[in-house]
Amino acid sequence: MPKILIIEDEAAIRRVLKKIISEENDTYQVEEAEDGLVGVEMITKSDFDLVLCDIKMPKMDGVEVLEKVKKIKPEIPMVMISGHGDLDTAVNTMRLGAFDYISKPPDLNRLLNTVRNALDRKELVVENKLLKKKVSKKYEMIGNSDAISHIKNMIEKVAPTDARVLITGPNGTGKELVAHWLHEKSDRTKAPMVEVNCAAIPSELIESELFGHVKGSFTGANKDRAGKFEAANGGTIFLDEIGDMSLSAQAKVLRALQENKISRVGSDKDIKVNVRVIAATNKNLKKEIDEGRFREDLYHRLAVILIEVPALNDRREDIPLLINFFAEQVAQEQGNAVKSFSDEAVKLLQEYDWTGNIRELRNVVERLIILGEKEVSENDVKLFASK
Fold first, then answer.
1. Which residues carry this modification: 4-aspartylphosphate (predicted)?
2. Which domains does the chain have, with CATH numbers?
C-alpha cells in the first residue's frame, strides 16, 4: 500500500490534495503535516513512498525540507507545490533533486500523473537496490579466518578512498572478488567497473584495448575507437594479470596515472580521465623488476595499498563455509535441492592439497553434488574428488 505525505500549511489545500489522491486510488494511504518541521519529523520516523511539499511555509520552507529529506532518505521522490510567484524556486528545487513540481491551484490530471510517475520511480529505485544486493552477494568473500578478516577490514578502510590498490596472490584465490568489493563499497559504485585481462590480450593490441585508437593508426583500424580507460571514466578499471603487460603499455599506463590523461593510439590529442586503478597479479613483481620485465616506477604508482590474498591451503578453516556456499550456489544454478556434506566428507576435503585454490574447490563441490549420494559422504569424496 503506497504511503503518501502531504506537507502544506494551508488546511484547505491539504484537504483538496488528500481528497483528489485518495479518490484516485483507495489503496493510497495519505497522511498530512501542517508545516515543514512536522513533515521532516514524520519522514524521519516513518517510511513514505512519496512526499508532496509546499515551498512557502512558516518554520521551515519547502527547499529546506527537500534538502533534509535528500540527506536522510534520498530514495523518496519529492514533488514540490508552488504558488505563481514560486516558479523560479520550484525550478531550482529540480536541480536540488525534486522529482517534479505542480502549481497552485493543482490541475487534476497533472497532479495524478505526477503521483503515479513518482510512485513508479520509487518502486524502480527499490528494485534496483534489491538487484544491487544480489549483485553484491555474487562477489561475496566467504570465510572467517584471520587472513580473510584482515582483507575485509582493509577493504572497509580503503574502498571509500581513491587510493590505488595492488592485489597479489596465486591463481584461483579470489583476487577478482577483492577488486569487485573495493569498487562496490566505493563512492564510484554507480559508475562502471571495467575489467581488462592483460594476459589474454596480445601485446600488439593491449595499447589499443586500454587507450583506444584513431582510424588508420594501424592495419584494421577502420574507425575511431574508445579504450577501456575512457569506458571506465568516473569509475574503476581493474587491470588483472598486470605482470603480463608489455613494457610499452606499462609506460602509457604510468603516464595515465601521473597525469590523469591518455591519448589514443595514432593520436596526439590528450583525453582527461578520472579513473581509479586496481591491479592484480599472481607474479612476484619485485622479481619481474629485477629481471627487467616490469617498471619499478609503475609498481610504486600501483602499490599504494597492497592486499595479499592467501592460498586456500593457508586458510583451511574456511573450507566448510566455502563448501556450504558452493553447494547452495550449484543447487540454485541447477534448480535442485541443496545437498549436504557429511562431517567426514568435509574433514577429508579440508585435508586435500588445493593447488587450484578456491576455483578448484568449487569445481570439486559441483562434481560431488552431481555424482555423490543424497548426502555427500567420505566415500564419495574418495571416489570423485581425486586429483
1. 54
2. 3-135 (3.40.50.2300), 143-310 (3.40.50.300), 313-384 (1.10.8.60)
